[in-house]
Amino acid sequence: MSRNLVLGGLLTSVFVIAALLSFVWTPDSVEAMNIAGRLKPPSADNLLGTDHFGRDILSMLMVGARTSIAVALVAVGIGMGLGVPVGLAAAARRGGMLDEVIMRLNDLIFAFPSLVIAILITAVFGPSATNAIIAIGIFNIPVFARITRGAALSLWKREFIMAARVAGKTRTRISVEHILPNVANLLIVQGTIQFSLGILAEAGLSYVGLGAQPPTPSWGRMLADAQTMASLAPHVALIPGLTIVAMVLGLNLLGDGLRDALDPRLKVVRA
Amino acid sequence: MLGYIVKRLVSLAISLIVASVVIFVVVEVAPGDPASFMLGLNAQPDTVAALRAELGLDQSKVERYLSWVGGMLTGDFGTSYTYRTPVAQMIADRMWVSLPLALFALTLSTLIAFPAGIFAAARRGAPSDLAVTGATQLGVAIPNFWFAMMLVLIFAINLRWFNAGGFPGWEAGFWAGMKALTLPAIALALPQAAILTRVMRSSLLDILGEDFMRTARAKGLTARQALWRHGLRNALIPVLTIIGLQFAFLMAGAIIIEQVFFLPGLGRLIFQAITQRDLIVVESVVMLLVFAVIMVNFLVDLAYAAVDPRLRTRT
After folding, report:
1. Which residues on chain A place their C-beta less than 8 Å from a C-beta of chain B?
2. For a Cys staple, B121 with which of A243, B204, B237, B278, CB 3.0–4.6 Å?
3. Partner-chain contact A120 B286, CB within 8 Å
């Protein structure tokens, strides 16, 4: 196992465990405000200090991890759930009408600055975690469609697929039974990358107030709240930021490690 | 080449049409009537109706779409619902902040990425290469708005070298303007520089393994000479694509960075317009950004086809 895989896996598990743990236990309540104990630096009582309402930052980060992970995970799910079948269908009839239309639509979504559209969607339909998921998820669709199609196209030329066709299997059955299992590795690796991009996008959207709404804690909004306090208590801005960096770094390392472990020849798109 | 240009122009036109329809439809389904929003809760129904007629809201959707697109083609972006000033004027004013910011950031990221990528590729596997690659891992993981906050904390609040935000306007002089844009540009450039460094490095490494590089060494060039004379030029093709794509990220990233630094650019215009339900402004600014991105990518494609005839046959 490579160093990337171990380090990335460890970092990612820390956040996933913290998020899961927050359902049953947090060091302190995230709703309990304590104005007298506001903006306290890290101490034995509050391991990572308190924010401008005197809430425990560690607890806020744990509950916030839930939001970040949920948003990014569902967005990857949307991307895979819609993108993979589309990519498989396009590859099954290469050069056909469907392929042409799908790929042009894909190019079009790629041409949109994703953040601008995410802002447009969340602004029009109202800011919420759900709308953030949709906005981020839409841009995952072409990513998965494209890499699925690319990988599937080269598989369709292989002998074992030829054999399956001779055996009389339909294109759909071949796509599901033979193509999909062979592109799964690639999808897992790309999934980790999109997951990390989703975490960053969610943080950005909730920083500008278009993500999860109060009182749901979210990493991006913790930073937005911290902005005016940063000069008084740098830890309120420093700690949530470093948390995002660590989570994204962990996922990226995990992605690189998985790629090397599953297939060193895999090429992953970073978009 | 001409055939290729025509083909690309057709797909450019289709992209723009579909993009405009999508934006129009998304904004159309937005809840809330701009006219009643502008007049407040106590407005009389007939006043609202009069304003709706004045704003053209009583026309059919198709008519409104056509007049919106038609207007944009002739440089008329409509009139802001809230400010009652031409949207084109508002965009033009804000553009003088956003565009220099994006270009400043693009320049910075290129200036960082080229030497860093070349340096790392030339020392593949050495500790210095690992240091550069590690730094790029970190660079892509840092949210640029948080990096911006840290820059403000260090260079504006503690060291007092820069202002924490705001823009004096270009009337205050070129250098005063550039100074106000320096921290935002650095914040925008960092993640882009990290991505660009990676692309530069891996593209150079691919080229270094090519036969013509071995030939260059065989005819007596040193590794350094071969890299500069033959390697770099060929490695630039994928790098240029990424620079083209990055323009899109910079324009979009600028929206959030402008919020951090209170810069009066297109990003702040969008947010103000969103909170005031000034949908015509939102629509037009988003369309403009999408147009800019599609255009840049189109030009990058054309530039390639001009340089490399093989690409003209690719679909």
Report:
1. 104, 107-108, 111-117, 119-121, 123-126, 196, 200, 203-204, 207-208, 223, 226-227, 230-231, 234, 237-238, 240-241, 244-246, 248-249, 252-253, 270-271
2. B204
3. yes
